[in-house]
Amino acid sequence: MAPTTTLAGARDLGRRRCDSGDGDGADRRLALRAARVYVAFPVRTLEELLAVCRLMATYPSQWWVGGGWAIDAWLGAASREHEDVEICVLREDQALLHAHLAARGRWRFLTPVNERWAELATDDKRLERPSFMFQVQATPETRTTAPGLPPEFEFLMNDLADGEWVFPHDADLRLPLERVRVASALGVPVVAPEVVLLLKAPNRRRASHPNKDEHDFQRALPYMSAAQRGWLRAQLERLRPGDPWIPRLSAELPP
Description:
The protein is an alpha+beta fold. Helix content is 35%, strand content 20%. It has a six-stranded mixed sheet with strand order 1-2-6-5-3-4. Strands 7-8-9 form a three-stranded antiparallel sheet. The radius of gyration is 18 Å and the shape is globular.
């Protein structure tokens, strides 16, 4: 779907993608502009994302970029500000992840508790369901060959059942892992755009999507295939009837 390149060439590739004429002028301007969808957070740059990816390059199992960065990485350029860097791993591989990090020194491990970050209490730092996220923070004892790391970044636990990825909001929705984890224009693995947009959607308490999610939807939509749009529309109709993205996915499907 998208060409790959070295991490060192990622920024230039992103600029070339934006200037290539792929998509209409408004979309290219969107890709070239770091959209300020909201700013009350520390901004994590493309360089910091790529530094985390370099840290994970020798990780001996599956990993991929999650969250809003997955959309931007898939298309090859930063298009808005991001408050964090989220890396997806398999829950069953937590021991491998901790060994990978421990080989690079000491880190602080935190997890959300009552909407605040708290030290991860378990001795082995393992997260069990329903917990799914922990944050790592560098310390003076952290050693890394990936310069430019952000001061903290997050890992998201992903579950498998019978070898298939399990959607966290509905255990009946399962996909082959290769359908969830796809290549990107930056040469790093990312969560597929239709999957990350579905992950952003199932909140029945909201009548509309937050600005950053709406931005990601608009960014990805022109580049998603008919199959990707159709799958996302079908899942939204099932999980979040009335979602404002549904008619737009239907209306903008190519003939």
